[in-house]
TrEMBL record:
PANTHER family: NUCLEAR TRANSPORT FACTOR 2 (NTF2) FAMILY PROTEIN (PTHR34213:SF2). The lineage of its organism: Eukaryota, Viridiplantae, Streptophyta, Embryophyta, Tracheophyta. It comes from Aegilops tauschii subsp. strangulata (Goatgrass). SUPFAM superfamilies: NTF2-like. This is SnoaL-like domain-containing protein.
Amino acid sequence: MANHRRYGSCATARDFEMYAPNATFEDPLMRAHGVKQIKSAFYTMPKVFGESKIVEYTIKENATGPGKSQILIDNKQHYKVFGKDVDLESLITLDVEDGKVVRHQDW
């Protein structure tokens, strides 16, 4: 799962091919518009967190219209912040149109 690599702070350029050119990413800490800003957001993670990874997840996909779907990833994320372990439960929502992610939210 490419999301797993991005959240594990080891993303590669290929991991971002799933995004439409004008896609958005939003979480409690940031908002990014366009693939360049989304890449920057995920490449910054290792500088902010000593460790970050998704440790458990379930995935559901729902069709929302012709060529459109929403992928819901209910997950548990593990971070190391200032040497302290932090576990968070999160819902990642990916809105997909014609095979590309147009909106990525992590709440």
